[in-house]
Amino acid sequence: MNMDMLQNTGLLVISRHTESEWNLLGKWTGLKDVDLTEAGQHQAEQIGEVLKDLRFDVVYTSEQRRTHQTLAGILKGSVHPDVPHNVHGAVNERDYGDLTGKNKWEVQEEIGEEAFKGIRRGWDYPVPGGETLKDVYARVVPFFDEEILPQLKAGKNVLMVAHGNSIRALIKHLEEIHEDKIADVEMSFGQVLLYHIASDGLVDRKEIRQIDIDPPKA
């Protein structure tokens, strides 16, 4: 392989939205639109502070306003100028269907640990009226490959603010994680992933940056 062809490297920066009102209450949020808490707004600015050394050519968020609010905090904390902001449903949170709005820990008591883990961390564990992680993967990955990857291959820096499950689906794709291992993949609150993407579209290296927070009840 000609290494000269791989020198042009784009940067994909991925942040989960920060603490929302329903995270604080331990509720399954899914596609429900809720706002960040005051702590979540502060966390978003903290994330911006650890990204001050970076500049972004374009940003992407989901349709849920908690990602928009997180982005606003990140840009404020990083003292970053305005950049083109794209909103796309492909990176929306997983639809939790009939579980939306229910308290996770109460559901855990009702259905038992095995089913609870299957719903939260499984690859293709069904949720009444909702999506599996496999379903989320089926919409996230084609969008990434068609919309975002060409920009990374061209050397652009892209910031994505999304959700635990849409990010887990993308991690699976980027790191080629087998579905049997997906339960071990977690996107923590306050964690930021930096993927350096070579011009061949593959991950050249990965960095993790983290702010110190008390984890919300995710």
Strand fraction band?
15-25%
Average pLDDT, all residues: 93
Largest sheet: 6 strands, mixed
Strand order of the largest sheet: 3-2-4-1-5-6
What is the level-2 CATH architecture name? 3-Layer(aba) Sandwich
Count of discrete domains: 1
Order of helical and strand elements: EHHEHEHHHEHEE
CATH class descriptor? Alpha Beta
Give the N-terminus to C-terminus distance in angstroms: 43 Å
Helix/strand class: alpha/beta
Radius of gyration: 17 Å
- Count of individual beta strands: 6
Which spans have pLDDT < 50 for at least 5 consecutive residues?
1-6
User: Quaternary state, please?
Assistant: single chain
Shape: globular
What is the CATH superfamily?
A: Phosphoglycerate mutase-like
Name some characteristics of this structure.
6-stranded mixed beta sheet; alpha/beta; disordered N terminus; globular; Rossmann fold; 218 residues
Can you give a write-up of this model?
- By secondary structure, the protein is an alpha/beta fold.
- The protein has a single domain (11-210), classed as Phosphoglycerate mutase-like (Rossmann fold), CATH 3.40.50.1240.
- The chain is built from 7 helices and 6 strands; from the N terminus they run E-H-H-E-H-E-H-H-H-E-H-E-E.
- The chain has a 6-stranded mixed sheet.
- Helix 2 (38-50) crosses helix 3, helix 4 (104-111) packs across helix 5 and helix 6 (133-153) packs across helix 7 (164-175).
- Residues 1-6 have low confidence and may be disordered.
